[in-house]
Amino acid sequence: MAERKVRVRFAPSPTGALHIGGVRTALYNYLFAKKHGGDLLLRIEDTDSQRFVPGAEDYIIESFKWLGIKFDEGVGIGGDHAPYRQSERRDIYKKYVQQLLDAGYAYMAFDTPAELEEKHKEIPNFQYDAHTRMSGINSLTLSKEEVEKRVANGEKYVVRIKVQPDEDIEVDDLIRGKVVINSNVLDDKVLYKAADELPTYHLANIVDDHLMEITHVIRGEEWLPSAPLHVLLYRCFGWADTMPKFAHLPLLLKPEGNGKLSKRDGDRLGFPVFPLQWKDPKTGDMSSGYRESGYFPEATINFLALLGWNPGIDREIFSMSELIDLFSLERVSKAGARFDFEKCKWFNKEYMMMKSDDEITKLFAPILEEKGHACDYDKLKYIVSLVRNRVSFVNDIWNEVNYMFEAPTEYDEKSVKKRWKPESSTQIPELMQVLEGLDFANVEENEKTVLAWIESKGYNLGGVMNAFRVAVVGAARGPQMFDIINILGKEETYARVKRALEVLK
RNA sequence: GAGGGUAUGGAGUAAUUGGUUAACUCGCCAGGUUUUCAUCCUGGAAACGCACUGCGCUUGUGCGGGUUCGAAUCCCGCUACCCUUGCCA
Are A429 and A485 part of one and the same domain? Predict the structure, then answer.
């Protein structure tokens, strides 16, 4: 076979917000494609008319835009293989379904859902397959005339694949090696529904992957059991020689216990499982997103990349281009990866520390405004520079600087107990006298002066400064005191100390 | 029930493809630095069992065997968990 250009796809269903596991699948597809100079396509698999959710498609596109995962072709971009929305490819599927029917690889089945349910009840482990299909109502058991009559009457039927029994089907998986399944355990899966004139996933994904010249199918582990069916379909169509290679990714597991990570876990444990905030159009339920929670897209990507894959080197912080460079399916692990939210936060903090003061200040400015405070840009940048390494999120900065904008209304009990000593009541007024003649903007000079004074008096450095801190801030927190009073200014500092002395005694 | 997949400290994972003392990161604990917090630095516990600050062991990569001079890596059996089992994807 001639060397084909690598082409992979991410093919979500527009049934709601994009799950973070799906994001990781898309990421691995992206990394793989870019690593090999190939293309990544975005295909929308909306063949289930029942589960379609308006807005989901836009949500998906916006999510990837935020994350920095760029598609080369697909919905929202276009390309040579359009349309990329399966609901717009009806005629294509119809043609291929007919091909299967004509070749005898598939048949029409008229059994109603109720009839099938009945069979499930009657026969234990019932499945529509080689052993049971002859007792069904289908084009294999009905006369040609009867079938035609039913179709002409507009009777709803489905097309099922006719799986040949007693055959070992091999699936070569790039991550798991060879997986063999006997065709006896496969059922005659529904390929097409006449009711909405749409194929099911199984048929649509094979037809589209073939037509779109997909070379590698990288998808979640939940697809592994149906992979043999897909192999069968490639054979039925005569496309076996250009069949894509498969790679089934390990699942993202709940942080504790077992099972797939779900939306509920996020709600329950307090972390997002969606890239962007999502409001369910039906229920109105809000789900938080990484973006709104203050995660940087690069941090989210970095964290996700290392969940189920590792580059084999002792480093954890990687840019997208480094990830592309390092990525390989061989280093994807087989076992499901438990979602570690703490690690995710750590990543964000690392990225936070890599940002410039300007970047962070610009991100924080609107938050400050929201809190009802205005601040000169340069001053805000100065403030941000003082506290930025104490938080993991830009959103958390407010909690570190609120006292710079609002005088304390009460004093933290623990801090007072530990830091406000009897001698503080005399030392602090003395300190205020020392400060009186100083220019608060001269931080270094002031520090030098005050430290010298403390030493000359034989006071304890920590004792004086911490008491001062409690008086001004209201608690034992914050950056260096001389920076704080510089920001507050003389007037405000004196007012706060005065009040503290009255309250704390 | 059936079929498939997976298994290394609490979590993510590494281990030159059979090579000796199971590494790294997060988290946790302690110490140092500091004007509090954070950063930073150093150290530690943590992979088997138990009456878990300790003790034990037939030293331990889910469990039990086996092959081998040597096993997390290979073989056999088992267990647990996960996925699939829709006219969903």
Answer: yes
The count of structural domains within chain A is 3
Provide the domain limits for residue A390. Answer: 355-401
A98 and A213 inside one domain: yes
pLDDT in tens, A77-124: 999 999 999 999 999 999 999 999 999 999 999 999 999 999 988 888
Q: Which positions 381-410 on chain A have a beta carbon less than 7 angstroms from any atom of strand B? A: 389-390
Number of Cβ atoms within 10 Å of the Cβ of A411: 19
Angle, alpha carbons A255-A14-A106 (nearest 5°): 105
Point out the catalytic residue in the list A119, A263, A490, A505. A263
Q: From residues 224-253 of A, which are strand B contacts by CB within 7 A?
A: 224-226, 250-251, 253
Nucleotide nearest to A252 (CA to C1'): B82
Other beta carbons less than 10 A from residue A369's beta carbon:
11
Evaluate if the CB of A21 falls below 7 Å from strand B.
no
The per-residue DSSP string of A162-194 comes to -PPSS-EEEEEETTTEEEEEEGGG----EEEET
pLDDT digits (tens, 9 = 90+) for A26-38: 999 999 999 999 9
A200 touches strand B (CB under 7 A): yes
DSSP code at position A157: -
N-terminal to C-terminal alpha carbon distance within chain A: 87
Nucleotide nearest to A482 (CA to C1'): B35
> Which pTM was predicted?
0.94
